[in-house]
Amino acid sequence: MRVTFPRLGTMHIFCKAIAETAGIPYLVPPKTSRNTLALGVKNSNECICLPFKVILGNFIEALQMGADTIVMVGSGPPCRLGLYDLVHKVILEDLGLGYRWLTIPPGLTWDALMRNHQETKPLRKDLTLKNYLTFPYALYVGWRKMLATERLEKLALGVRAREATKGGTERNLQRALHMLDEAKGAKEVTEAVKEGENIIQGTEQETGRRPLKVAIVGELYTVMDPEINGRVEQRLGELAVEVTRTSWFSTHIGRSLGLGRENKRERLRFYQSSLEYLGYDVGAECNVSVGETIIRAGEGFDGVVHLMPFACMPETTAAAILKQVSRDYHIPVLTIILDEQDVESRIQTLLEAFVDMLQWRRQKKLKEG
Ligand code: SF4
């Protein structure tokens, strides 16, 4: 058995930690590249949303490299993510790629558990008693690594906006993440986080700088994966913008499992704010995108960047509403629609123009007193 999983942001760090700690053979799919996307696009319906194509590309690459068991997160209606696994399986079978499949249920329902029980049947014979016994600890180490990567990434968001040399924070963040990736066991994770924080904080900074404040909202895959969004977060930081985002693995896992009171309160706050424009839950991140923009306007943020894949149903709804929210709450919103044609120069130009406009607005406000 050799398990694999989608490649999304820093997810490979904690997925690898779980497999490694439990002694389960694994294969980390290669970083999402033009080749990944080309494989996904070639073998999908052109109208399906971008994350579907990227994840399919990840799976094809991993299976071709020797993985044989795919672990995928499940979801439910109304979003298409709930149907990804059904369609992915058909395509992989048509391509003649052998695989076994395990869906992590999005919630602890009876149906999901029964399905999980069926899917794990052929896998169980490959697992040893040691795998079972170490699995709870492996989950703990994976969870700790996930929180640790988020802590380092959040720290980098503040430092990057003040860095003296462009790219300094990113280099240090990558160094810190690499150390964390190498850490074995909970004790080493704690040490790696401390060391990583020191490395990131050691980036030379211009402390007098007053960065613009921008929130990134939108579809979770495009918000969390720098390979797909053309490194929007990094680019904004390097334009001296302090970025905030609330879409993290811990947010979504916590929401599914009902964990994290603070997190739940924040999501509920966003959701309730959106009700002024949306009378019901549209699905995925739509209500949160709208609600968070309203909240950020009240908190004095300079602007919002809204990311969405081409053909994403919930975020297309959000994009239309955000135009009105932007007018009503006087907060500039830049919606970037991402698709497989994207070129980095387009994203850079859009962000530079947006940041220039935000600087101009700030100067104007200062002059007006
Ligand atoms: S949120 Fe959008 S992009 Fe993501 S699966 Fe649903 S429709 Fe597709």
Please indicate the count of domains. Answer: 3
- Proportion of residues in helical segments: 55-70%
Helix tally equals 15
Number of strands: 7
End-to-end CA span: 66 Å
The ordered H/E elements are EHHHEHEHHHHEHHEHHHEHEH
Secondary structural class: alpha/beta
* Percent strand: 5-15%
**Would you give the CATH topology of the largest domain?**
Rossmann fold
Q: Identify the overall geometry.
A: globular
Could you name the ranges where pLDDT drops below 50 across 5 or more consecutive residues? none
Task: Write down the overall mean pLDDT.
Answer: 92
Ligand inventory reads:
iron/sulfur cluster
Major sheet size, sense and barrel closure: 4 strands, parallel
Radius of gyration: 21 Å
**What is the CATH C-level name of the largest domain?**
Alpha Beta
Strand order of the largest sheet: 5-4-6-7
Please give the CATH architecture of the largest domain.
3-Layer(aba) Sandwich
Task: Summarize the structure in short.
The protein is an alpha/beta fold.
